Automatic annotation (TrEMBL):
The active site is at residue 252. Belongs to the aldehyde dehydrogenase family. This is Aldehyde dehydrogenase. Residues 19-472 form the Aldehyde dehydrogenase domain. Keywords: Oxidoreductase. It holds the Pfam family Aldedh. InterPro entries: Ald_DH/histidinol_DH, Ald_DH_C, Ald_DH_CS_GLU, Ald_DH_N, Aldehyde_DH_dom, ALDH-related_metabolic_enz. The gene is aldH1. SUPFAM superfamilies: ALDH-like (SSF53720). The keyword Iron does not apply.
Amino acid sequence: MVEHEITEVGCLIAGGWVTGGPRVDRVGPWLRRVVSTARQAGERDVETALRYARTGARTVARMSPAARADVLERAAAEASRRRDDLARLLALELGKPVQDGRGEIDRVADTFAVSAAEARRLGGEVLPVAGWARGVGTTALTYRAPAGVALAITPFNAPANLLAHKLGASFAAGNTTIVKPPPQAPASSAAVVRLLLDCGMPAEAVQMLHGGAEIGSALSAAPEVAVISFTGSPATGTAVARAAGAKRLVMELGGNAATIVCEDADVAAAAAVCAATGYSNSGQSCISVQRVYVDRRRYAEFLGLFTERVRKLRVGDPLDPATAVGSMVDGGAAERVVGWAREAAAAGATITTGGDRDGATVTPTVVADPPADARLIRDEVFGAVVSVSPFDDFDDVLTTCNDSRYGLQAGLFTHDLRRVVTAWRELEVGGLIVNGSSNFRLDHVPFGGVKDSGFGRESPRWMIDDYTVVKTLMLRGLSLFGDQEGTR
């Protein structure tokens, strides 16, 4: 694809790509011109997709786990081969530096491979019913059956890998999936779906409908849909849950992640890690470093090293392999981030670097010692700004970290095992990263939060639990463990 080419994508409905009808353009935040255009779904498209999904679910469920795993393994290898092309799409649509985009596609490959492995492990168990008197003479077995039709609603910040998680795990479980991708990344999302189809995923296994909130709401409310996996804002997640009603839900709703740096930490290493992970993807990650709390005895040292590291981050063209920080999703998001930093400064904080923007590109910003009620402390900033604050007591800083409506993930730099265990127990988060920042994830490890950060756990093994239902079989008068009641 040449730089000035516009990628046109259709809706994938009932086994075919539908291109005719209304379209919406996506303006790339760095190039500031149309980079892709997507055909929008309508009410009839939703109805057609749901009918097809209902019948297609039976076809997918009848595939053997081995056959599904083979498709996913081929997709893992193909993702690696298409790495540069997919990373370029992410850069054009989202302003994501190609180095970050390549990393995301590497994770797509891993996620498909892990999903394949989990498909091969699907099974059930023999239950110990004969251990109780009423169970003597009976054999009980379970297996995990596909839920049927899954709905995957994906966000713009990692549209390829989060789609791979939702769609890969759903297919591994034996479901058909309807994908509602983010309007900001239609071509990137469609490219992942095309990859899977090219690798042998049957047409019945996936459909993709582009559109706004009304499409997401209609799909969420549909009785044909058995389970919904959503990643996005708490407000949109609440709307999805309200529309869904009594359905299985897996929701990852964001955060304002905290990282703690204790006095025994390697401060230089902590500053380097926080600088790298606080501004990757312009801070547009639910676990991006947002709040850093540093022991007051090391605060000035950390702030100086951190600010120096941040100033050295290369900002610019996301298509340049040397760029570390590209653009945010749009100019409005960039203005909000800069505005929050300036609000904190007006309330007494100090901006040690950054604090401005050029269009959708925010200069990496550090805000020192903002007030506790500042928006960049209380809310999810989702942008290229990190706050740094001192603390005096470890127990108190744990309370400060917990004083948030979010609870997704946290980071802790220390060599004190007692602090590690205390933080793991006391922090109200779904995951704790020790000697690393909050912004670290392994795609085969459970990931999710508490409070307003959502519920359920992503990563293929744990998502399959939500994408399947346990079915029980009881054989009366037939026992693997004997059919006579024991004597006392």
